[in-house]
Request: fold
Amino acid sequence: MMKLNLKSAAAVCCAAAMVFFGGCKQDDGKIRIGVSIPSADHGWTGGVVWWAEQTKKDLERKDPKLEIIISTAKDSAEQVSRIENLLVQGVKALVVLPHEPAPLTGICEQVKQRGLYLVVVDRGLQKDVQDLTVAGDNAEFGRRCAEEMAKRLQGKGDILIMEGVPCEVNTLRVTAFRQVMKKHPSIRILESQTSGWSQEKGLKLMENFLQKYPKIDAVWAGDDDVLTGALKAYAESKRHDIQFFIGGGGSKAIVKRVLDRDPLVPVNVTYPPRMIAFGIEYAAAAVKGKPMVKSKRAIIPAEVITPANAKYYYQPSSPY
Amino acid sequence: MNEPKLTPPQTGIWKKYLNDARPFLALALLLAVCMLSNESFRSVQNLLNITRQVACTGIAALGMTLVIIAGGIDLSVGSLLALSGVSALMVMGRIADPRLAVAAAMLVSLGAGIAGGVLNGLLVTAGKVPPFIATLGTLSIFRSLALYLANAGTLSSSNEFFRETGSCTPLGIPLATICFLVLAAGFAVLLNRTAFGRHVCAVGANPRAARYAAIGVGKVQFMTYVLAGLSAGIAAFLFSSRLNAISSTDAGLSYELDAIAGAVIGGTAMNGGRGSIAGTVAGVFILGIISNALDMWGTSANLQGLVKGLIIIVAVLIQRQNND
Amino acid sequence: MNADSSPLLEISGLTKSYSGVTVLDGVSFEVGRGEILGLIGENGAGKSTLIKCINGVTAPDRGTLRFDGRPYAPSIRNALKKGLVTIPQEFNLADTLTVRENIFLGRELKRHGFLDSAAMREETRRLLEELRCDLTPDQKVSELSIARKQLVEIARALSRDCRLLIMDEPTTVLNPPEVRNLFRIMRAMRDRGISLIYVSHKLEEVREICDAVVILRDGKFIERTPASEISVREMAERMVGRELKGIFPPKNPLGPNAPEVLKVEGLSQAQTLHDISFTLRRGEILGLAGLGGSGRTELAETLYGIRRKTAGSIRIAGEEVNPDSPGKAVRAGIAYLSEDRQKAGTIQSFGLAENISLISLRKYCSRGFIRTAAETEAAERYRERFRIKANSLRAPVRELSGGNQQKGALAKSLDGAPRIFIFDEPTRGIDINSRGEIYHFIHQLAADGMACLVISSDLEEILGLCSRTAVMREGTIAGFLEGDRLTEKEIMYLATGVKGAEK
Reply:
């Protein structure tokens, strides 16, 4: 008797909860847009998720007929499943920031085959099937970082590069950086290793670098999360030989340091997670029949943040 | 002679059937509730999607169920999946003819899975390493090999035939689903209707008694690990053919936990000796449906782990209530 | 005998059912102070359930208990608080710990928050001295013999200020001198005012040590009588409710031409056996007697492939065999009914049919699949042949009584069509009725040509069943006895190497 009671109670509770939380999705004339992004596993992707949600609130407020469904996934396989679910929910457009190009290409092709509007943000696919690409200018990013570094080193010094996850985004940046540095033969790149764009790995990598090289002039951390980790390692080591670091991405913590004229962080280069917002806005416009952008690529330029203009880039409310 | 008290016949049996049916009742209830409350969930395409989404973890769970029933555990299933997939794609990349390449990929994937299973089996039986420790070790070893071979990246293929195989739907049902159900049927028959299956249960329930009954305990356990490895290999092939790529870092990550969860919800006892393949299938579907339904309802992806954990705990509690 | 004549424990109307089967039916009786009360009954009569209700492991459906004049709600904690201690058949000791640690397990003495080993050691020494046994507090329990482990359990009970001690089949694993010692301790405890409940199948012992006897049958209380006023035969009859015939079938003399089935020469096994030689003929029942630890089970395990022999030869029907696994032994025609029924003889969660077919499963398979109909049919045949009382062939065997489980294990070993059958303590812990049936089966098997080897610590069993006995001592055969020389006295002499050691 006892057992029957527990089981029935559990079952009834579950059922009630589900019906309560569930909702009937009727065909109510709403225009649905699906947004598939990675889950917030580091600062930059956290920024993407935040901007996506801001944009959703914004656009839905301005146009009640619009419904934006945001779906996060922790890896490529899960992302494919999520996109399948979005398709079932009847979205008219899909904005996707793929975890990886290859695994997502197939499903994106399917999306196009159904005649939906497809926007790809930041990382590309194996095949260019999308209607619109919104990305930062990775080559410009690398170039600007290199130029700022070379300028401040006055053309000579020993530097270290901390790369990101091996992928196209990383390759574009690093290649551009190195090309600029080739023009400054007295700047020596001591070593270049991957930090995986993670703060923790950045810290470990910096510790190793500090062990190996007794004198370092500057470090390109390549990303603001990595920069935070590297700065911590440097502070703990109590060394004084490094002149400055350059990160990348425009996170508010680093921008604040630029604003405060921190000698170790004189400058930053943007790579805004806000690009997802643009992607969603463009998708919404296209679906309503009024595309905002004529060409197939919308590239957001990489801008240099200095103490002079830092206040325009400082956004305390965003998580990134 | 004193006649024994006549008790209502078969009370023991009815209780056992009710116990075994529990995961299916839960599954039916869950399906009913989800379908009633959400229109997107109801569509045939979505239901087919769910079956495809659970297929790979499901196949891994089938092998895991056998291992657990025989009294062991295999934590390396996910990593073995990654290694098998990576090996398969590497081989496929070197063969020009698309059909031949896919055939080779299939063979390599299965072969790698079996090899991994053999290693696990030898460590546990001949090496007498406790299964938890042995497969914890091979979990790291397999993942590391996968990362090494793929340089910690994602291997992708340009083989169109491969992708077609992965996304083909014979009779409208995804290939992965068909493989899952066929494999489940095969394992169920193996477990319930063959001498080997009986031996697996005996070994898990009481290895000493099994030994005294002239059952080769080591051989039986070894075979369960090989079958688990084979399952991982099959899952690897289906997994990578669906995405036409495999990520050495992410593929199969924490699959072992999902496989164990599916088996446990389906009624397999962690101590061994008792379990059912059908139950595991139900358990895997329950997890898949919940994941899908939560997504349809817009719940944050981050809370899914919470729901999954709660289900596992509730499932075990309900089972324990009935085993006093 | 005692100043206070009110009962220590009063049980009234105790009733308990499991899944619709009534196991205890309104049992009521009293346990006096400073009294040794015997509790006897067939397997399935309700003895263990009654004990579990008293010491709080199970809750009765109906009924009340009073302890020391006050109402007593049985729970494990309550029982300990009141000084109600149970020593189960399979001891509750932690093998990896020492004597001292076991005695104080859960109630360690502390000083300033740390364990006070010195005090515990001293207390342990005192208890052990009282029991007059030569154990030291720091000996590891895993190294002790079963009799000594029992003494540790008793010491633990004493250290808990026990007032009522329940002992479940305490002497099945003891040899006669150890039984003597146990009885001495029990009497000393009784004289100190402690009451004891003594659950046993060994009716002579019950009569010897108990002041009074309670008889249960089919879950009902039948009778409580002073031990001196009832004979062993009457006890057995009240237990089964009918008149008893002799339980041992008449022995068949072995024909002179019976061929040799098993010939063992110079068999040795690393640390446990050395230089064992004997022969076994078709249709013969050979007994194997000896004290605990003399190597009888080890010999059986070596023949059955659980242990590997290190020297000597084993010949079956003239052919040399080397059983290094049970599979090989079975194929060579050897069957072994283990003494550890629950852990090695049956799989508790399997049904009767699945247990019976376990060794010879291939027989029931066609094209790889088990034919359940054939399996069920075979199980049905065994159920009839051995009169196994089971309502269902597929319900877990843990629901059957010990005797019926043993019959199932017997059927399993028999199903492999062996030529040689080794019985290891075949009736240990089994009620008298089933015991008689098992003797009858062994006798029948031998008459049909099976060569039987019966290992037993029950001398009455050896004498009643076997026409020839080997006696082992310290890993080898001390001698063979048959005919006139096959007496308890001679067996004990060979087993201990000491004349006059039997009583």
Summary: Chains A and C do not touch (no CB pair under 8 Å).
